Amino acid sequence: EAGVVQSPRYKIIEKKQPVAFWCNPISGHNTLYWYLQNLGQGPELLIRYENEEAVDDSQLPKDRFSAERLKGVDSTLKIQPAELGDSAVYLCASRTGGENTGELFFGEGSRLTVL
Amino acid sequence: AQSVTQLGSHVSVSEGALVLLRCNYSSSVPPYLFWYVQYPNQGLQLLLKYTTGATLVKGINGFEAEFKKSETSFHLTKPSAHMSDAAEYFCAVSVNTGGFKTIFGAGTRLFVKA
Known about the structure:
The complex is a heterodimer of chains A (115) and B (114).
Chain A: E1 5-7, E2 10-13, E3 19-24, E4 31-37, E5 44-50, E6 53-56, E7 65-68, E8 75-79, E9 88-95, E10 105-106, E11 110-114
Parallel strand pairs in A: 2-11
Antiparallel strand pairs in A: 1-3, 3-8, 4-5, 4-9, 5-6, 7-8, 9-10, 9-11
Chain B: E1 3-7, E2 10-14, E3 19-26, E4 32-38, E5 44-50, E6 56-58, E7 64-68, E8 73-78, E9 87-96, E10 100-104, E11 108-113
Parallel strand pairs in B: 2-11
Antiparallel strand pairs in B: 1-3, 3-8, 4-5, 4-9, 6-7, 7-8, 9-10, 9-11
């Protein structure tokens, strides 16, 4: 079974440029998360989807960040325009829906460097 | 609201020595507790979890953790460290409030000396 797939793994851009990250969760996983991980820190939730609905986006900086999960499967996270402080790893995770123990399955992350 | 505190951003042990990584949590509802490990340039992978039942849980690679409700702790241990255990370890608490919300600690980097 394929795991959570993210792309690109690495991205270097100049400030004020746009950038997009893509995530394909494990097949059948209804819940998808985007986390931000700064160097030396734990992951911080940006947004959580239940199928195609964003049910928790309170930590997403909506002035420059946007996300979508149009068909309830794969998802895209966009930053426009990027700032120097956005340099971080963007992690996607998924889990099965319904009652379970909340275990998350993570992709390898997309490392963003803003110059 | 829930929170996680990991005591010690860095822990260094000798190969063969006991590994102890500390985690304390707070939660207004009964939580599920997790330890994840992250190797360089990789995502997080589950080491072990506590949901209900037995408070001592065993995970992969010889790690185990004990849930102590009275101390609100979930410390991670391994009797004998291997070089391959060098990684970043994250404690996490998850609560189901109409969907699981998972909060991570800041992480503890484990160094293993030969």
